[in-house]
Amino acid sequence: EVQLVESGGGLVQPGGSLRLSCAASGFTVSVNYMSWVRQAPGKGLEWVSVIYSGGGTYYADSVKGRFIISRDNYKNTLHLQMNSLRVEDTAVYYCVRDNSGPAGPWGQGALVTVSS
Amino acid sequence: DIQMTQSPSAMSASVGDRVTITCRASQGISNDLAWFQQKPGKVPKRLIYAASSLQSGVPSRFSGSGSGTEFTLTISSLQPEDFATYYCLQHNSYPLTFGPGTKVDIK
User: Which of A19, A22, A114, B88 could form an SS bridge with B23, CB 3.0 to 4.6 Å?
Assistant: First the structure.
């Protein structure tokens, strides 16, 4: 079964760091484009970042310089390192396989709450 | 960055109604547009890609059209399970951008 399972969400203070992980099964992360998409409580969807099969990356302006997308090919896992977190980064974060944009499967979502 | 707008932002409709949602891009994006459906508490689901191609497993009552800057999602006969929020997404250039969403609820 093609599946993504996320972990690593939680409560963090402003200025803190958190790393999300997304373990894939049924397909190989390294040969696919993989994206992160987030959704603040009660708000719409916001694309966050992508990593190409070749290793190139892109970020939304709102997270550029603070977030880093990466992957572990041996563990078939995608990561999102989030630094200098702000209250406005509070959201459910989804990992998703990308094929002409987020296509699927999607992870179940990891809630990140930034609050003092 | 390419900005996406949607109209209407919300609508009430009845089962059996024909529903049309419009998405506009701030600049031409060819047919690099997708439509997503999201129900409360659920992950988004892609319905349409390349502006008019139906994702596998999606009912044929959903259709998409358009190119350039104006796109539409049409539900030919609204079903109870279609009450949800719909988002468009441009994937022509980074950063990818979603529209603000259209909430379709029961009249």
Answer: B88
